[in-house]
Amino acid sequence: MTGRYDCPVTAEPTTPQAYDTGPFMPGAEPFSSSNGPNGVLVLHGFTGNPASMRPLAEAFADAGWSVDLPVLPGHGTSVEDLLPTRWEDWSEAAERAYTSLAARCDRTIVAGLSMGGTLSIWLAGRHPELSGVVVVNPLVEPPADSFIEMLQAVVAGGMDLMPGIGDDILKAGISERAYAEMPVESLLSLMGGAADLAPHLGEIDIPLLLLSSRVDHTVPPSSGDFLAERYGGPIERVFLENSYHVATLDNDAHEVEERAVAFALKAVSG
């Protein structure tokens, strides 16, 4: 059964900052190319920015794909811009970016890392016309109640920010340029978005490529297991043996790119 569940998005972003606005940190700028009739929407993770996904986006572009890699609201500038943003802002931005890309392409797939993977699967639930989904260490498994309660206690204690989760990379000397801190209420909203998505995974039957790091200090590897066990469509899972969470910049980056491009070609040709 092709899934299309109703998860509301706002008509306009709920914060004044639109996505793809700056000034951005060096390397955090959006990326776009118009190289062919088929398109790939590429989405970065929470507190990150396009720097983490730029090599994958460029690999698609080099393979003849049209690519859009936007900056999600609150990202790529300063952590203060992220403080007021919520799941509704990021999902609305992803919806807009997909609609814009799909309008100029024959076939479209989505690809995302971490929260970008969550958003990619969320889009697949809304758009059964998608040809395929590629996710790298996505956040899908709802967090434990105890973790949510801990975050709520942090907010109740008056703390807006907590230490960041960026740069979980095994390869030495590599940075994704993520924020050093993360807004607690924004993180809670992300967790809520993942929890809302989880019951609908079985309704989606779009082909999916799941790239899972064996060791991940940001999103528990069990989140990949959760997705693989519940997803309603055909799923190809590849384990990455030599990378941490940000596998798109890590030792297995070349394998991620090769697998993703090959999967996308098969998805639009089938």
Task: Please tell me about this protein's structure.
The chain is α/β, with parallel strands linked by helices and 270 residues long. It is 35% helix and 15% strand. Strands 1-3-2-4-5-8-9 form a 7-stranded mixed beta sheet, sandwiched between helices. It has a two-stranded antiparallel ribbon with strand order 6-7.
Key features of this structure:
globular; disordered N terminus; single chain; alpha/beta; 8 helices; seven-stranded mixed β-sheet; 270 residues; 9 strands; Rossmann fold; two-stranded antiparallel sheet
SSE string: EEHEHHEHEHEEHEHEH
CATH architecture: 3-Layer(aba) Sandwich
The percentage helix is 25-40%
Beta content comes to 15-25%
Radius of gyration, whole Å:
17 Å
Q: How large is the count of helical segments?
A: 8
Summing up helix and strand content along with how strands pair, one would put the structural category as alpha/beta
The CATH H-level homologous superfamily: Alpha/Beta hydrolase fold, catalytic domain
Give the averaged pLDDT, no decimals.
Answer: 92
Low-confidence stretches: 1-18
- Cα distance spanning the termini: 18 Å
Strands across the major sheet, in which order? 1-3-2-4-5-8-9
Major β-sheet annotation: 7 strands, mixed
Q: Domains counted in the coordinates: how many?
A: 1
The shape is globular
**CATH level 3 topology:** Rossmann fold
- The CATH class turns out to be Alpha Beta
